[in-house]
Amino acid sequence: MAEKLSTEPYKGVRDFYPEDMAVQRHIFDTWSHTAESFGFERYDASVLEPSELYKSKGVENEELVNDQTYTFTDRGDREVTLRPEMTPTVARMIAGRHKELPFPARWYSIPNLFRYERSQRGRVREHWQLNCDLFGAEDQLAADVEMIALAYQSLINFGATEEMFSIRVNDRREMKEFYYSLGVIDEESITQVTRLNDRFHKIERAEYMEELRQIVPGAAEAILEFVEKSEQTENAVTKALNAIGINNVQIDRSLARGFDYYTGTIFEIFDNDPKNNRSMLGGGRYDDLTFLFGDERIGGVGFGMGDVTMRDFLETHDLLPNLKASASLIVVPTDTKFNLDGEKVAMAFRASGVSTLVDISNRKLGKKVTNAAHSGAGYLLVVGEDEIARDEFVLKNLADGTEISGSLTDLAKQIAS
Amino acid sequence: MAEKLSTEPYKGVRDFYPEDMAVQRHIFDTWSHTAESFGFERYDASVLEPSELYKSKGVENEELVNDQTYTFTDRGDREVTLRPEMTPTVARMIAGRHKELPFPARWYSIPNLFRYERSQRGRVREHWQLNCDLFGAEDQLAADVEMIALAYQSLINFGATEEMFSIRVNDRREMKEFYYSLGVIDEESITQVTRLNDRFHKIERAEYMEELRQIVPGAAEAILEFVEKSEQTENAVTKALNAIGINNVQIDRSLARGFDYYTGTIFEIFDNDPKNNRSMLGGGRYDDLTFLFGDERIGGVGFGMGDVTMRDFLETHDLLPNLKASASLIVVPTDTKFNLDGEKVAMAFRASGVSTLVDISNRKLGKKVTNAAHSGAGYLLVVGEDEIARDEFVLKNLADGTEISGSLTDLAKQIAS
Hints:
2 copies of one chain form a homodimer.
Chain A: H1 18-37, E1 41-42, E2 48-50, H2 62-67, E3 70-73, E4 79-82, H3 87-96, E5 105-109, E6 112-114, E7 126-135, H4 140-157, E8 165-171, H5 172-181, H6 187-198, H7 205-215, H8 220-228, H9 236-243, E9 249-251, E10 265-271, E11 279-286, E12 300-306, H10 307-316, E13 329-333, H11 339-351, E14 356-358, H12 365-374, E15 379-383, H13 385-390, E16 393-397, E17 403-406, H14 408-416
Parallel strand pairs in A: 1-5, 8-9, 13-14, 13-15
Antiparallel strand pairs in A: 2-4, 3-4, 5-7, 6-7, 7-12, 8-10, 10-11, 11-12, 15-16, 16-17
């Protein structure tokens, strides 16, 4: 006998059986509904991209490209990468048609992304992400505010309240101005301080100060104060968010974000629950990215929000609804010899817009009726010799147990109404 | 200056700009609506699969595995393939949980699939497919009929009529019985005849007969007659389809289908338009596939239907609706200094379920109003100094030009009703 094949998926990726797929679709549907409620249009692209897209200056993230991508050479000797993030793709597409596209352009997508890294909670190798981007708005403040409002609203639309999460905002330009005011002007020191700040909430104060003093001996105290007092300060973005009714927002001067391409506002949303206290979403403004593809600079602001962290958030806060999917009507043949009659009856109901499942199993009639009652379907209709002979059927309402008789057309109207 | 990056996608794959994505979503939505109207549940899996999944006997398709897959070795030295078809994946998943799953199981998915082949019309290297499968039904006839009815209904739900397409049915068991009755019993000859039959409609009669006589000298005339008279015959599946109201169905004894795993009924749907006369959809019964993963044989019947051929069909028969997407309401600030007020107003409408886009561009007021009128949106609302001061706004119905005034709450109710 030949050796049996494994039923496991490839390492680090997930199978979505129907019950998991129902959760996934609830997440995707809420995301797309929210994005469209802001007038965003959906786009998509292939998961395969030329590897050079992730190697150019401005996109480059050394660790990512060298160690964490799925990159291979195809049969035509081209180097190709499974996309690890969507922003380079959307910048490529916007740059490719910048002459025809109307701006501001509001685009969203729900791509799958791949990273080769050790699997841990929230760190599978393939995940899906809501990506929203707003390109070419001259009014950067309004654009930044709208993007954060969209991120906020997507959580609200899942049933979250403001107490459950907080929005943290920083600004790369403001940070640079602050460093300049302290006489810290060389790029290398600023980069090192930025990286250290990214660890501010994860390390001890003493350790932070020791490292900070090594980088910028004369400015360490001032920087610490600036970071520590973040929450008592505001900027134009946080003030505008308050003004439009979003209150769970604060400045966080330690916020760094990993991608080198951000040029202005950056933001993250954190789960407030101590059991799941982590960043759920991040984004920011990148004004130079399309310049990689041509002479045009089309400023953008965007964010990405992952399915794994989203599901963790929904489970942590008990926000997942009952997602039992089912047809509206179950047709139950009294015997398998009436299965094809059942299929014919089902066609009539579907023509009236009623989703209909035919139980063509070999189970006993009583078992089939019980299964239908537990399926989540609204109605049950039995098909047997009498019903077929008289061309009259009995429709049972599974919620209240009531029954009505009639022709298929009458009964279909009854359900559809 | 650094060299500019290309804005082209990777060779053989497609970018979906919003207008193409709208068509794609119309196709996907119609597919999923149809599958769910039959009680099918959605599942999904990663595009990455262990390469061994496509190399085992029963799934194997030599040309496919050796020359037409995207296969590479990952950083952990595993051989991995971008799935070229979905059936091995769904068989793997069904086999993996066959003890817990309720049968019959009706599953569908809309995966992207990769094949490395020369690009030509309808033959891009990545395409999406509706995959529907029904597993574990003892009543194979009812299951086969239901699957073909589902394929049929999906085209009807796009607005097609029976005249636009035809369903061709064959049966591997019936073909085998026929060959046996002629004394043709060796597998090799049967395989060769099957492959030749697959070309029956594409080559000249004389060429067909010459090759046929070389394979089975004594049975050639009988096979030709059997194939030629296909349309005047029926079998249990075509009779049952007629009985449930599907008439554009015929036996086609030349129908072969490429995959070795089919064991019974096989079927294809052809476009009847001479401009696009091709197979749009194919499927069949495979009863041995789950046996590759364990000792259980769970029979299945399924089909796959591609997005590229589907779009060609819809365009050929002029079945694509106007898919202009837009927000319901466009908010137009009289000046950019009221952009943030516009964002605030928009939040109020969205809270009432009204999708709302704020025009934060630098365009002149008149131009913004004209753009809104052409956007496909239903309503327009101007936000300026007076409106903000009085907290009273004017909502313009873009379809009939009527206007009403009121508070934001009143106006939101007006649109939502």
